[in-house]
Amino acid sequence: MSSLHFVVISRSSGFAHSFRLSDATRSLSLTTVHLVLNASNRSFVTTSRNQDQGPLFEKAKTMDPKLYTKSATPSSTKWPAPSPSASILVISPTNKVLLLKRVKTASSFASAHVFPGGNVDEFHDGVTAKDEHLDNIVYRNAAIRETFEETGILLSKSPVEVSDEVRDKGRKDVYNRHITFGDWVKNHGGVPDTDSLIPFTRWITPPPAKKRFTTQMYLYFLPVSSANSFSEKPSKIHTPTPEGEQEKEHTSAEWEYPLTWLSKAQSGEIMLYPPQFYLLNLLSPFLNNFNTDYTTQRKGVRQFLEKVPTSSGEYDSFDGKLKPKVSNTHMIGWKDKVISPSVMFTPGQLYRDETVLSLESPGPELGAQKGNTRGGDAERVVVVEFERKSGPRGIKIVDRGEVGRLWEEKERKGARI
């Protein structure tokens, strides 16, 4: 069945957005489209039916998927290229996940709980192009080094037995580039365990953020056999800072099961940003305290990550019937998924105070590449309220079909949810 395509142009920024009214959104009237776009300070113009490209698309600086549409996302030289970075979900011997509390003065994710990780450093990790959004040894080196610098945890193929004093000095020396991370580990009889890192999605900061990152996420399982000697008690961590500066980057480190972290975030006890909440949500059915068979739990995680397709390829549409997906993201394995969140609904359009984020787009860089086959997750969305001063709160992961049904109900009742 044919679809009616729209190009939406922001009055304030001039950014162009593409979406279409198709089977799933046929009940959406043009009057409602006018109202929604006017409320969000946007103007719109329709293009011809079944037309994916045209003059308006040529001058579009960026495009975001709207409703159930997957749109190309051309790159623009206006936006800073995302800096390569890496992060690890470190799993304890009893299958708890490590999170670090960021200080209030942090330049990013201030006061939030995050996974260990940070930017690629050519001095330590090697060189990777800013447009290289693929798992490779450079990202793996960075992930393990950053985890060591931030927490003192050394992910090595063989145990490295050193005193706390030697370890802390090593963290500072590596941070201050007095010695490469690889040489420090080698000097103490270890080898960075890059082979045991399991790729688990990539996240690219969407425009128009001034600081953008292309972050490779990994999973790392600490040996179950070390459970008796491993401490999971909360601890205070001194993050190394450049020489001459006072050590003021303090974060706390704590191990908890994914469901516990999610519960704390939903109650407002801690702050999680969408990437951390989303990944913990995916792990929560597998890593829990319902039993102590930690090896079987890990096997479930591995099977989940390796399974392709990642879903049935169908979505629960507005009318409650299963229909084919409009995107092929279910054919992309979790190690290859690239997610660049984009706004699907702004506050007031669907929910009163919450933003709905689509996770389908791989971002402007990959979206503009000819023949790109990578993407994110078309079947889930993030619903979150962003507070300017306090950050995200009330975050939850929702099936895309549920959002569609709410939109249909709002259109039918003409009332705010």
Automatic annotation (TrEMBL):
Domain Nudix hydrolase, first and last residues per copy: 81-278
UniProt entry tagged with the keyword rRNA-binding: no
Alphabetized UniProt keyword annotations: Hydrolase, Magnesium, Manganese, Metal-binding
Region (Disordered) location: 229-251
Pfam families given in the database record: NUDIX
Species lineage: Eukaryota, Fungi, Dikarya, Ascomycota, Pezizomycotina
Cofactor(s), by name: Mn(2+); Mg(2+)
Lipid metabolism keyword on record: no
Protein name from the UniProt record: Nudix hydrolase domain-containing protein
